[in-house]
């Protein structure tokens, strides 16, 4: 059996690259020669070595933001051909090859086929966007400006909303302006941030998207949601329970949406919609990918993600 290079996570901030067997597609699957994989903040606990994980991880896991070129097609697959450039929804993409169901792929737009294009977070952004129900003229706040938050600012600005962005990092606030935010605020002082946005919006925003996954950003997002508005939880809250001001939520009559999708069909639809949004100019992810690392330096990618040096927003590992 042919071998490939795969990242293997050992915990405690250790990851090494090993030679492992190439996967083979079964019925209904395709194999993709990966060109790269985005590095997702949700993987930080895996890299750090939290006690609820078992190590070593499966080779290539938990990489899930892969893109590349189909190099083998399994039985029963009619819609894909060897050589097609695709983004895929899979789980072992920190490697040179991965397999995925034929239904979990989207074709890369031809003019971007040679670009670094982590599709899964684009799909997340489109699914969050759909559930946010943003309309022209609304004041929309995005709390937390990472890769997905920046994409949502682009989408809201393109739709004719007035976008307010809040982030701890000055560089992220600069990114927010570049993506179309008309006003930006720091989040270091929670009460000051809430007061500034409520004064600007006249009592709260019609739509608020919390996109950082922290208690402080959830507090800010709750505090700037206007009466009858919609609070969308897009951040991945994975480090323990959260507290919310339920009286505030009740009094303001908020619609609270948890915008994480777990249905594979919904995720795949978001991936296809992302390729359409990319082609028609509603999103431009390429300036947001600020750092690239070869596969054998994947540990450095996670160190950068953990420390977020100035100028960092999103890293990709190039296979």
Automatic annotation (TrEMBL):
Residues 13-317 form the Enoyl reductase (ER) domain. The chain crosses the membrane at residues 139-156. Gene3D superfamilies: Medium-chain alcohol dehydrogenases, catalytic domain, NAD(P)-binding Rossmann-like Domain. Pfam families: ADH_N, ADH_zinc_N. InterPro entries: ADH-like_C, ADH-like_N, ADH_Zn_CS, ER, GroES-like_sf, NAD(P)-bd_dom_sf, Zn_alcohol_dh. Keywords: Membrane, Metal-binding, Oxidoreductase, Transmembrane, Transmembrane helix, Zinc. Its cofactor is Zn(2+). Belongs to the zinc-containing alcohol dehydrogenase family. This is Zinc-binding dehydrogenase. The lineage of its organism: Bacteria, Pseudomonadati, Pseudomonadota, Gammaproteobacteria, Lysobacterales.
């Amino acid at each position: 059996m042919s071998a490939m290079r795969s990242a293997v996570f050992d915990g405690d901030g250790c990851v090494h690259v090993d030679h492992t067997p190439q996967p083979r597609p079964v019925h209904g699957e395709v194999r993709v020669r990966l060109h790269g994989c985005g590095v997702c903040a949700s993987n930080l606990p895996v890299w750090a070595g939290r006690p609820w994980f078992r190590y070593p991880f499966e080779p290539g896991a938990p990489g899930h933001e892969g893109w590349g070129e189909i190099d083998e097609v399994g039985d029963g697959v009619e819609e894909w051909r060897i050589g097609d450039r695709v983004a895929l929804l899979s789980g072992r993409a920190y490697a040179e090859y991965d397999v995925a169901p034929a239904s979990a792929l989207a074709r890369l737009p031809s003019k971007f086929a040679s670009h670094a294009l982590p599709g899964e977070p684009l799909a997340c952004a489109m699914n969050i966007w759909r559930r946010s129900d943003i309309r022209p003229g609304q004041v929309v706040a995005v709390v937390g400006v990472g890769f997905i938050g920046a994409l949502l600012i682009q989408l809201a600005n393109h739709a004719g909303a007035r976008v307010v962005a809040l982030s701890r990092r000055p560089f992220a606030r600069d990114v927010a302006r570049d993506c179309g935010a008309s006003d930006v605020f720091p989040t270091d002082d929670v009460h000051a941030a809430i007061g500034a946005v409520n004064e600007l919006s006249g009592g709260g925003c019609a739509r608020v998207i919390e996109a950082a996954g922290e208690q402080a950003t959830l507090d800010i997002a709750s505090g700037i949601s206007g009466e009858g508005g919609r609070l969308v939880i897009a951040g991945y809250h994975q480090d323990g329970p959260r507290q919310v001001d339920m009286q505030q939520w009740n009094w303001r009559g908020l619609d609270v949406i948890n915008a994480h999708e777990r249905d594979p069909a919904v995720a795949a639809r978001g991936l296809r919609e992302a390729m359409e949004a990319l082609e028609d100019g509603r999103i431009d992810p390429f300036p947001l990918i600020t750092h690239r690392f070869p596969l054998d330096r994947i540990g450095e990618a996670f160190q950068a993600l953990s420390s977020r040096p100035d100028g960092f927003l999103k890293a990709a590992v190039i296979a």
